[in-house]
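TA notes, week 10

Several of you asked for a full example with nothing omitted. So below is the full record: structure tokens for the whole chain, then the designed sequence directly under it. When grading your own attempts, check the secondary structure regions first.
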């Protein structure tokens, strides 16, 4: 079953293998959220999967991995700058 999580800080969503269905970033100012395939907060450059970003005029950015979701081998870590991030995921 897919779980939903709302985060407002740097967060380790999964510390092991998981699938991610969707990630949404909301904020009224320019900001970013970096998505890593990592089980901790190492922020290894080669494990950066995606960067979500918005602006003062575009308040929302998202990535939808489809109904089956995207497999994250090590885990899911989100390095967040501001705003709110919604994650739909499940542990494997």
């Amino acid at each position: 079953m897919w779980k939903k999580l709302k985060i407002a800080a740097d967060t380790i969503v999964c510390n092991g293998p998981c699938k991610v269905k969707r990630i949404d970033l909301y904020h009224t100012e320019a900001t970013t959220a970096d998505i890593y395939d990592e089980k901790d907060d190492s922020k290894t450059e080669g494990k950066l999967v995606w960067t979500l970003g918005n602006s003062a005029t575009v308040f929302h950015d998202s990535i939808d991995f489809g109904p089956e979701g995207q497999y994250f081998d090590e885990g899911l870590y989100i390095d967040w700058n501001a705003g709110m991030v919604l994650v739909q995921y499940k542990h494997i």
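Residues 3-91 form a domain with the Jelly Rolls fold (CATH 2.60.120). Use that as a sanity check on your answer.
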